[in-house]
Amino acid sequence: MPDTIVALLPTTPICPITGATSPAAAPPRPEAPAPAPAFDVAEAEEFLRLYYAEHPAAGPAGPRIAQVRAEIGRTGTYRHTDLELAFGARVAWRNSARCIGRLYWRSMQVRDLRHVRRASDVAAECVEHLRLATNGGRLRPLITIFAPDAPGRPGPRIWNEQLIRYAGHTSGDTVVGDPRYVGFTSTVRSMGWAAPATPGRFDVLPLVVETATDGPVLSEIPRDVLVEVPLSHPDLAWFADLGLRWHAVPAISNMRLRIGGIDYPAAPFNGWYMGTEIGARNLADHDRYDLLRPVAERLGMDCSTDRTLWRDRALVELNRAVLHSFELAGVTISDHHTESQRFLQHLGKEERAGRSCPADWSWIVPPMSSSQTPVFHRYYDEADQLPGFVVDADTVSRGLTGAPAAFPDAVGAGRIPLPPRRARWYRRLRP
Ligand code: ARG
Predict the structure, then answer these.
(1) Superfamily in which the 23-39+76-429 domain is placed by CATH
(2) Which one, 74, 278, 327, 375, has least CB within 10 Å?
(3) Where are the beta strands (DSSP E) in 149-212?
(4) Under a CB-based contact definition with an 8 Å cutoff, are residues 426 and 54 in contact?
């Protein structure tokens, strides 16, 4: 089920769904709340109609819509019921056009943490999210929803693209670690993150949670919740000597969950990995770990010409290693053939339910052996739908570079760079 392959690649400067620019661009200040932006009542109503249409036993939508209209009139926003929240989150996944793993959208567990607002509490609950999601290797699709944006009261922000990501350390012209996070790594270092004395290829970045009152706060992911899989190969003994590994849980943490006109800016969610995300992208892309040449060389291939297909063969062996190692470690993972079949099953189900299923071919089709998967050989409906997970330009930029801050005028924003005492405190917390 997994792959909310939503997040990482294309950076959408403007929300593809609502066309909105970043709400963070003009954040309400805590001391002088900006006038509330007009609430999109029509979006609220459309969501409630969807909820009642898909829950016939709940009766007619009318009374609830009237109630919500009145609440918006009074307060400038409204509060989802527990059931609406869980349904909205699941439908946001169902609508994720880039995700091949949506067959199990109904099964996502929802943690309602709308009352959690302080940065340190949000960080602690992100750690708890990882513990619950990892579930000893039997990964559980899970979303944790923190406080929504409300007039004059913005919700918390998580800067990191994912709860677990590896640092990219620059050393001269080369990068040790994940080149994607070079900017983020240097920003968190300047904020007081105590990187390991010897930079490693797989150093887990700290979480950065920002609120309008606390400013950005750094915290480490404790070792004991961090499950990683060391990579070995089913037949190539030397493969393990490459010293590669990857983390078990892909947990996207910087997409805004939008349900019925309400934004939940911090709502980390996870499924499980499809092997190619690691083996054909994270470890293989030129601008990521770029490992195909070293693997091909160890395979004894002639890399002097493209025509030996050394890249292609290395790609297959790397991906075999990923699937083999996760299985060996007892960590849930799926392969692109299985996941493609499941996706078509999902499309069939959605069609029978009378719904159109938005899908983006360029994201759905796996990055290797594409024509061998059934998802390659067809077209899809592309229209975006809400509820959904969205990103805006500032969010994307924060995830990659650690800037701009969402609340530059926050009371606690003076914590960049961290006072030395705090920096020491982080160092002590390092696992
Ligand atoms: N492709 C991203 C990564 O490799 C993860 C995106 C979400 N994937 C998932 N299976 N839920 O880190």
Answers:
(1) Nitric Oxide Synthase; Chain A, domain 1 (3.90.340.10)
(2) 74
(3) 157-158, 168-171, 174-177, 207-211
(4) no
Ligand 1 mean position to 163 CA, how many Å? Answer: 11
Q: Is 220 in the active site?
A: no
How far is Cα 148 from Cα 146, in angstroms, rounded to an integer?
A: 6
- In ligand 1, the atom with minimum distance to the C-alpha of 274 is 10
- 358-415: pLDDT as tens digits: 999 999 999 999 999 999 999 999 999 999 999 999 999 999 999 999 999 876 654 4
- In tens, the pLDDT along 207-240 reads 999 999 999 999 999 999 999 999 999 999 999 9
- Active-site pick, 272, 339, 357, 363: 272
* Rounded CA separation 266/157 (Å): 5
Q: What is each CA distance from 114 to 111, 125, 184, 263, in whole angstroms?
A: 9, 12, 27, 12
| Pairwise CA distance, residues 86 & 112, whole Å | 8
Nearest to 104 by CA among 229, 218, 272, 317: 272
The rounded distance, in Å, linking the Cα atoms of 427 and 195 is 9
Please give the pLDDT value at position 414. 47
Q: Domain residue spans in the chain?
A: 23-39+76-429
What pLDDT, in 10s, does the model give residues 23-78?
A: 333 444 455 555 656 899 999 999 999 999 999 999 999 999 999 999 999 999 99
Q: Kindly give the distance from the C-alpha atom of residue 358 to the centroid of ligand 1, in angstroms, as a whole number.
A: 19
Percent helix, strand, coil in the chain, to 5, is: 40, 15, 45
Token pair of 266 as six digits: 């911090």
Rounded Cα distance, 331 and 283, in Å: 18
